[in-house]
Amino acid sequence: MREPQLVLRKDGRRATLVPLGKKAFGRDFLVVAGPCSVEGDASFLALARRLKAAGVDGLRGGAFKPRTSPYEFQGLGIEGLKILAAAREETGLPVVTEIMDARDLEAGCRYADMIQIGSRNMQNYTLLKEAGSIDKPVLLKRGMSATLMEWLNAAEYILAGGNNRVVLCERGIRTFEPATRFSLDLNIVPAARGLTHLPIIVDPSHGTGRSSMVGSMSLAAVAAGAQGLLIEVHPRPQNALSDNDQQYPLVQFPALMKRIRKTAALMESFARRPSRAPRS
Ligand code: PEP
Ligand code: MN
């Protein structure tokens, strides 16, 4: 395989900052939260207001949903994108949403601030090439069976097309362990940070598949060097139309946000004053 040319941290190349609203991945520690799927107008708006009050930096919500079964909720499509845009209008928070098909990229760019390319599409090369020519930042999730180099090469497609505003998101990989939906691979955070100048964030929701593990794995991700988090939050996870086992209950979210911010501030203070303790 040819070595990627653009994504690697070569020749002292500085970290890439990827804007989201008035903040930037790679400079600020950003938390993006919201439901797995946008389920309706009023419910999304009410949730968005509460997430803003909890101090998130961006909203997430799927309008086009990659579902394993064709008989499950597929998302509200364009209607969902409009709901996201209305929530941005109301809260001032930027919105992130997944686009699965290159034909929907234009609509995604019209309504959203950042386009997510999901795990199942990390090797959809048509979509990656098209994402290289859009004028929006891209959140590129790791394929659930992708190696680090395959993931970086997927990002390379987007950079090669002229769009260098790419954030990598670890979201768990398939292993032999059935106790969790996926195995959140936190090794990949320092491994990726050593190789690429692109920011890397972690999604502990899909990474565990269990809401009871999202809090601890969020903090673990920050300690591992993640530069942001993508967390699924729902007011009534048991009634959610997708991923109900893993969505974090809204009532508990403000307390988790405080712990995330404290952990991120601690990591930041370590970075400012590197300890002399050996790295192991
Ligand atoms: C999602 O973010 O809801 C999603 C489907 O993510 P992934 O591609 O990581 O499964
Ligand atoms: Mn989901």
Describe this structure in words.
The chain has helices at residues 41-54, 78-91, 105-111, 125-131, 148-160, 188-195, 204-208, 211-223, 253-272, and strands at residues 18-20, 23-25, 30-34, 58-60, 95-98, 114-117, 138-141, 166-170, 200-202, 228-234, 248-249. The protein is α/β, with parallel strands linked by helices and 280 residues long. Strand 8 (166-170), helix 6 and strand 9 (200-202) form a beta-alpha-beta unit. Helix 4 crosses helix 5 (148-160). The radius of gyration is 18 Å and the shape is globular. The chain starts with 17 loop residues before the first strand and ends in an 8-residue tail after the last helix. 46% of the residues are buried. The protein binds phosphoenolpyruvate (PEP) and manganese (II) ion (MN). The site of phosphoenolpyruvate (PEP) has 11 residues, from loops. Manganese (II) ion is lined by residues 36, 206, 232, 242-243.
Structural class, please?
A: alpha/beta
Mean pLDDT: 96
Report how far apart the termini are: 31 Å
User: Which consecutive residue ranges, at least 5 long each, have pLDDT under 50?
Assistant: none
Which strand-content bin applies to the residues?
A: 15-25%
Strand arrangement, largest sheet?
9-8-7-6-5-4-3-10-11
Strand count: 11
Secondary structure: helix percent: 25-40%
Most strands sheet: 9 strands, parallel
Q: What's the order of the H and E elements?
A: EEEHEHEHEHEHEHEHHEEH
- Attached small molecules: phosphoenolpyruvate, manganese (II) ion
Question: How is the quaternary structure best described?
Answer: single chain
CA radius of gyration: 18 Å
Which geometry do the CA atoms define?
globular
- Helix tally? 9
